[in-house]
Design goal:
This protein is α/β, with parallel strands linked by helices and 416 residues long. The protein has helices spanning 6-18, 24-35, 37-42, 62-72, 90-102, 118-127, 145-156, 174-184, 206-217, 233-243, 261-273, 288-301, 318-330, 346-357, 406-410; strands at 44-47, 78-82, 108-110, 136-138, 164-166, 192-194, 223-225, 251-253, 279-281, 308-310, 336-338, 368-373, 376-381. The chain has 15 helices and 13 strands. This is LRC34 protein.
Amino acid sequence: MSVRPALLQHYVQTCQNLGQPENPFVAHVFQEADKNDKTWTEGITLKIAGNNHLVPVQRVTDDDLQVLASVLRNAALVTGLDLRYNVLTDAGAKDVATFLEENSTLRYLNLMFNDIGTSGAELIARALHRNETLVYLRMTGNRIGNKGGMFFASMLQINSTLELLDLGDCDLGTQCLVAIATALTQNKSVKAINLNHPLLYSQQEETTVHVAVMLKSNSSLVELHLRKHEMKNFGVEQLCEALYKNSSLKYLDLSCNKITCDGAKFLGQLLKWNQTLEILDLNANRIEDDGAIYLSEALTLYNRTLQALSVVSNNISGKGLVALSDAMKTNVELSYIYIWGNKFDEASCTAFSELIQAGRLKPNCTDVEPYEVDGHVRLAELSHGLQKHYYWTPRRGEVTDKDANASLAIAAVSEH
């Protein structure tokens, strides 16, 4: 019989000791990790994602995780663990919490889209009261609810290591959003937070007001996601007033809200003065031509820091789109622009075609591609965007073209 590599051998032995069957996919990941000597000198992220398309996948269960945690307890050079799209529940979260309390090397943990609920969230959050190494945690898509979110808000008052926290699509409520915003007024370590798609039942925008108050005093937050917050022009105005006093935020995501041209006017005024924002996502709002013109004016005459702008699906017609293309002719810092889903006419198609052909707008830095039919220029859609790889991963290999995903190209997030 051939001699098994150390990590795989440890996994097989642990399965036997605990009376658990081997998970072929987990065994394959360990086998590949053992083969790669270079990564073991730099630290390694074990990618045991349940949506892996390269090899047959048997999704990780709570029993599998018990074995996995036991194996990794002594694997000091494992600095990242990707367990997205598996079937872990609150029982598995207990093993995750124990592992976080005992481990002193893990920096990246991805648990997105498992079945962890409120009690599991409590266990993980409490473990982070004592953990001093984890930098990046993704809980996206686990239905932890408002109560689960409150445990993470309490954790943010104690933990001083975590830099990136992703609580998008977690059914957060008003109470925990307010608590998280309050905690971030004092927390100096968190640099990026995702609060996308909470469950809000009020039209008063209380949560946005509290986030705005936090931004006035927070000097560490670099990236903020507020997608699907039912935000209207009043909320945008509050955020803009706060950002006049903020000199740290670089990435603001306001996509899928209810912002109109009046909200875009507030943003345009902000861009005339703000010298920090690099990425602005207004995807799926309704700023229309007037809103696009407000933004274009600021970008043409004043702002020289914004690098990426998304106005996808904003009911903008030719007039507003041409204004944005004209802004790019003057503003050389604006390198990424996403415009698909608006009302193209021949003038706007020609304007963006000329930008691309002249080399001012790189093909990988926008979501449209010009083509000609019967002597008329038209635009076709490309699958590029600000967060192209947020949920989606390539079927073959790794993400190699970061320019097609502006958030990675401008504000890359390390898994280590």
